[in-house]
Design brief:
Layout: H1 7-10, E1 22-28, E2 44-50, E3 68-75, H2 84-102, E4 107-109, E5 113-116, E6 119-129, E7 132-140, H3 159-163, H4 169-190, H5 196-201, E8 209-212, E9 215-222, E10 228-232, E11 235-239, E12 244-246
Parallel strand pairs: 1-2
Antiparallel strand pairs: 2-3, 3-7, 4-5, 5-6, 6-7, 8-9, 8-12, 9-10, 10-11
The structure holds biotinyl-5-AMP (BT5).
Amino acid sequence: MADTLAADAVVSLIRGRFGIPYLFRDSCASTQRLLTPELPEGATAVCERQTAGRGRLERRWEAPPAAAILCSVLLRPPVMTGVAGLTLVAGLAVARVVERALGRPCQLKWPNDVLVSGRKIAGVLGESRGGVVILGIGLNVNQDESELPERPVLPATSLFAVDGIRRRRAPLLAELLFELEQLYGHWLGGRLSELAGELASRDYLRGRHVTVGDVTGTAVGIAPDGRLEVETSAGRQLVASGDVRVEPSA
Ligand code: BT5
């Protein structure tokens, strides 16, 4: 069967609420824009090709057609919170799926990068709009090295670039949606506290010397509300958002 993310290939594999309804387009500007706030929780938009795929801060997300997973999932948390925690929840879901697929450890670089051996294999974009949260996930699956973005901030990789195996994306997407639903259930129960152990064990920044905005120090962990904890010369500081630069260790 051809490798496609069309509804026919994916919907029969969906095991929970997430992924229903399933909105599929061959091409769209950004899956983030296909979901509107009146849709039910779990509604998922997927496409094979984005003409204006976005990262944070209006950066671009690039992927050749039909090689990656490009999806957005609508969440309606009962109490509206910032998107930081849910962005990490989505990162954990991706990390679990990637780790199972590759049999290699997968880490999270706060706030939204998913890494294998220090290379970015996926990114998450959390946005709140009209009372809902829309989590966008871009996961590099079958791209070869030449199809990965040139000169990204972090070196990029894909499942294929790591182990040379071409994969059908439909089962991976169904697994990702199921994993996200399970982890979201934990998040509803106790925010990030139930997931703290796994977050800490996947925390790429922990122990590294970092600069985020005007804060410089050693990253020590991720707080229950999703903020990054940095030990600075002036004491411990909590950073809500930003781009982290990892400094060479002294
Ligand atoms: C992200 O932003 O990592 C969030 C990416 C979210 C993409 C998904 S795809 C489905 C949904 N619809 C959308 O329009 N977006 C979401 P950020 O941390 O800002 O990273 C962006 C940076 O990653 C870019 O500036 C590039 O350096 C790099 N980049 C772009 N495409 C990449 C890729 N395929 N793999 C690895 N790095 C990439």
